[in-house]
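lol ok so funny story. i was supposed to be doing the assay writeup but got distracted and ended up predicting the structure for this chain instead. priorities right. anyway since i did it might as well share w the group, maybe its usefull for someone
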Amino acid sequence: MRRTAEHLKEGIFVAEGEKVVRRLVESNLQIVSMLLTEEWFAVYSDLLTSREIEDYIFVGDKSLLETIVGYGLHQGIMAIGRVPRETDVFAVAATSAKPKLFVALDGIANSENMGVIIRNCAAFGVNVVISGETSCDPYLRRAVRNSMGTIFRLPVTHVEDLSQSLRKLRDEFSFHIVGADPKFVSVNVDDANLAGDVCLVLGSEGDGISNKVRDMCTLRVKIPMWNEVDSINVSSSVAVLLFEVSRRKSCLNNRL
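and the output, tada:
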């Protein structure tokens, strides 16, 4: 549970909690092994017969599982899965139906924020999440847990140079690169032109998006706020911005 570096090296991740594990079992991702109580094994036995488990299913008493990190966290059921092959972001850009909606993350180091961001992206129909070189791995244990297993349904990819990937999306695929950037000259998101293929870019809560990523943006937006509040949690920002894009798309479809 605490061997994060080893997990990433081996290409595996930990799924904990009933909802997260169920979504893993219902997905097409590979499952390495499971650890669960007898009660959960009885619930999952039929579902597991349809899945191939690479290693073993371990069944233990609740008292034993309570010694592993904390029963309240994993609820007596955990699994190890294999990280899927990374998505080719440019293949998605070339083949997905219009209008496309991507989210790029620059400097998102907190795994819990990463998980909530992915959950928001799944909820609002994002085609792919691009994790830049300064962001944490989306398959860290806390990220998977906070995504509530939605990461199993959403293509997520890591790039070694986010600014160059954004340049290619902008120049070769005609994406609008929209940076959430309240510290520089920006327009309110409700006044912004968000038509066409859009890649929203969000940065860390402390520093925002980096200069080289900012240079790739075709538009910079901010969320209007009251009471002299200058920022909100990055996962909350993602939800607000994606809702606005979704609202615009709905209005367009209604007119059509």
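The domain at 4-82 is CATH 3.30.1330.30 (60s Ribosomal Protein L30; Chain: A;). The first helix runs from residue 4 to 10.
back to the writeup now i swear
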